[in-house]
Design brief:
mainly alpha, about 70% helix, about 0% strand
């Protein structure tokens, strides 16, 4: 087998593999929320790409994240108090240096 045939075969195999592995089009219709935003931008938009931020949804997402962080913080505080009572809570010198 010549090197030229091998390279050509490898290229054909790569193209065929790429075609076979490509994702299928499984797109669906927009939800009503995105449909209304899309219609509004088509009717009154600047006709160029824009970044649209829904501040109500952003505030809701921030609240959800803060609740999650507070829940984790309370679990960590409980764990620290439990370990201190049992004498297993030690701060390593490297962590102490990071704390300042």
């Amino acid at each position: 087998m010549k090197r030229r045939h091998f390279v050509l075969g490898a290229a054909v195999a790569a193209v065929a593999g790429g075609w076979w592995l490509r994702p299928s089009d499984r797109g669906g219709p927009y939800s009503e929320y995105f449909r209304s935003l899309n219609d509004e931008l088509k009717a009154h938009g600047p006709m160029r790409p824009v970044m649209l931020i829904d501040l109500d949804r952003l505030d809701h997402n921030i609240d959800v994240v803060m609740q999650s962080v507070q829940r984790v913080a309370s679990i960590c505080a409980w764990w620290r108090s439990r370990c201190r009572r049992r004498g297993c809570w030690r701060i390593s010198p490297s962590a102490r240096a990071l704390r300042g």
